[in-house]
Predict the 3D structure of the following.
Amino acid sequence: MSLNDEVETLRKVPLFRGIEPAKLKLLAFTSERTTFEAGQYLMRQGEDASCAYLIIEGEAEITREINGQSVFVAALGANNFVGEMAILMDQPRSATVCAKSQLCTLKITKDCFFQLIDDFPRIAIELMRVLAQRLETTTADLIRARSIDTPAAGN
Amino acid sequence: MEPKLFRYIWRYSRREQLVVLGLVLASLPFYYLSLDLPRLIVNQPIRGEGFDGPDATRHFLDFSVAIPDFLQGLFGAGQWVLFEGFTLERIPYLLALSCTLLGLVAINGLFKFQINTLKGRMGERMLRRLRYQLFDRVLRFPTPFVRRVKQAEIATMIKDEVEPLGGFIGDAFVQPAFLGGLALTALIFIMLQNFWLGLVAAAVVLVQAFLIPKLRKRILELGRQRQLAARALSGRIGEIVDGAVEIHAHDTSNFERAEITRRLGNIFLIRFELYRRKFFVKFLNNFLAQVTPFIFYAGGGYLAITGSMDIGQLVAALVAYKELPGPVKELIDWDQQRLDVQIKYDQVIEQFHPPQMLASNMQDPGRHRADPFSGDIVAANLTWEDDCGVKIIDSISFRFDARAHVAIAGPAGGGKETLALLLARLLFPSSGKLTVGDQDIAELPEAVTGRRISYVAGDSNFFPLSIRDNLLYGLKHRPLDKLDTELDDPKTAELARMETARAGNPDFNIFADWVDYAAAGAVGPYDIDSRLRAVITRVTLDEDIYQFGLRGTINPHEQPQLTGNLLIARQLLAKMLREPGYDSLIEPFDPDAYNHNATLGENLLFGTPTGAKLDPRHLTEDPIMRDFLHRAGLWDTLIEMGAVIAQTMVELFADLNPGHPFFEQYSFIAADDLPVFAEIVGRIRKLDLGNLPEDDRLALGNLPVGYIEARHRLGLIDADMEDMILSARRQLTRDLPPDYLAAIEFYDPERYNSAASLMDNILFGRPVYGQAEAQSRIGQLVSEVLDELALRGEIFRVGLDFQTGLGGKLLAAGQRQKLALARALLRQSDILIVNEALSAIDPASQAIIRDNIRADYRGKGLIWVAAHEDEAREFDHILRVEDGRLCVPQDSASDHDSPGPATMAHTGRA
């Protein structure tokens, strides 16, 4: 896959929508394309975070360890960004990500990611937009969960 | 050292000075004759004195002695003719006299030559001695003093400031004797010709000799100031270089500029005044020298005309006078130099006279002792004061077995570090006493303290040598064999030895084997490596050294067996890499395939340039290489690729500021060059690539050399391109001149590549980009292969050749600390003092290393300065030092049986 194909892929990522192609090209150029075989781990819960991955092709599974039990959180497909939360918050990984099939990703290092945000504030705004959207989704989920819980408590 | 320069010179070069003085004295009669001869030539053959007729003759070289009065009764009055001489006519006589003059000139010249040579040798010997003595003193400086001196200043003093002394030492006694002799001879000669002329000449000389040194006094003072200012400047520059990070971090570069500017200005003013005064003195000197001939011409001419002096005498007096200013001026110069050099000497000597310097017999290598320390280590009112008189250690008393394991704990800065230095005898007690087995440690020579005790601190220094040599450094106390194997010519060796002795340097041969193998528990150079490996494993540095080994290179001709084994490893690894799950980790070098994970340059050469002819990063800058690319039809293609790369790079990086880290990490083009390429890209839009200026084409053509398709992903290498490069690769071995081919190490599955690292040789390919965890998986495989072939030891040995760089800077801080500890462990001394030497290592590893050392030192002394209390817990005794005093540890207060906590904190078991 050439650099230009990767730029096309990046454009489909919600986070990078609205960023000029030239900047995305720089991001693609400075990132390493990394392939995982099925069963290999992209990251493990509790590890130090040094990079984020953009999934280009294939499927991955997010699990979280709670009380020694591995709990499935979500499945990820192409165009999903994973691992960015930990590098944004400078915290250990909050979940484990494992490749479910052969997985083609773009590995974006922490330095590279922050450098890009520094250089191109538009990315930060896009990031905020995406995070706000996620927050809204989470809030909606929470309200729905409460509205289910409340009648139960009332009984 | 002698406080007075002349006494120093006399003390060490008396005999040589006397020989030269004798030579000077012997030369003076010849000099006198050479002055007298012009008079004879003018008066006798030229003016005809003694030649009464055209055929008259004279005796040449007749030699007779006047018979002394008391013998006249015996022989009668007259002369005793020893040799009648040759009878010569007037013209031959003239020629004979002239030839004699020529002969005398030659003799005088030879004398001068011989005197100068002897003087020079003497001066150089003395300079060598002086430098050696100064350096010797540096080695004997007390350690607190060494830390305060500025390296740059000390080095300048030994190297530059004493240099003029060498020149002067040769002249110290000889020059005044020789020049004084010359001047006096000339003066006496003039006096003999005419008393009054002689008097005038003497008067002028006296004026010169008194006035000019007076004027020069201020010059000397200025010279001294200049020297101090210059020395301070070099010290300051050294400080600034050391503080480079601070300067950048605090943006104080302009402050430093201002500071240096002021110093330079100061030096300029001093130097300028110096020059002004120097040239005035020069003017005065010249003027006086020129005035005298005026008197000679006027006065001497008058005397000659009136007949009280003949022409020959006048000519001779003039010739003699012409000889006079030279010696006198040089004599004055000598006097000035004397003062100048004396000042320099005083200043240098002052710097090399620190208080409490180690006596020289303390470093006598022969004063070692064979039996280990035994008995107790006892401190009685041990006190150490710093320069300001602050008591860092304040009358501490303790006693413990020299073979005990003792921890020194307490807060940082409370004195525990200083106590460790005192125990290692790196500091001397200010008062009180420290004894080891009833011997005062202050009186032990370094041959005992430096071998029986090992000391490691956290900031240990390394010399820019290999790891192996740094480890062995602690064993090099004295030369152990007397072989002069390096100087194969016995004459040269003898001369070198003689000169060494004459300059008072010690007779230690640096080429001898200095390593005390026995002290490391080894027999000789053949089994020392196993000891090195053992200590390195004890400090858990073995994995690092193994990695260094894999990154290292070897000369296949020197290690044929290892090369053969590495080639076997290569085959084994290749077999493993063919198995499923591993087959995508490495892209092997294949003579018939393009390697997408290697650079284009590598693919083209299918090898690595050894650097002798071709620079791997600038292949196309070589005209012969370019010529080849032309013929292979690749040059225009490379330029096209270069154009694509340049356009992409300019597009990607144009908005970034030049200091951006991306440039270094990712760009093909350095930040400084980007504007140049931006212009080229601008020109490409208007012109065909073929019509670009040649410089542009050259710049573009070199860009693709470092291009890696798998990494950079610009899609430049398609199947056609691969074919082109592969056919060029085949053509290359036929077309390039032999010396170029010899400068490339080609990839050959059957051959070892001496330009590549061991790792690259085993892999024989490039790791594929973008394989998750590729690095660790490859490392794992290589490890397996090497273990299977039992090659780890060999790799380790290559790793020992890793160069540590200046001060060990090429090692990480933790690696440095481990290496320092390994160096101390290798020596197997009686007592090991570890002064917070593991601070840069994580606590878990620290604990492992500490346990290892404790096990190794079972039954021997171990003194451990603990950074934290819990480190100290497992030791036999704990000395807790706070504010320079011992505190009794609460947990073990019950088992101390000493009179009081202030005097005796803890008593050893045995």
In short: The interface with chain B takes residues 1-4, 6, 22, 25-26, 28-30, 32-37, 40, 42, 107, 111-112, 115, 119 of chain A (CB under 8 Å). DSSP finds five helices and eight strands in chain A. The first strand of chain A starts at residue 32 and ends at 36. Chain A has a mean pLDDT of 81.
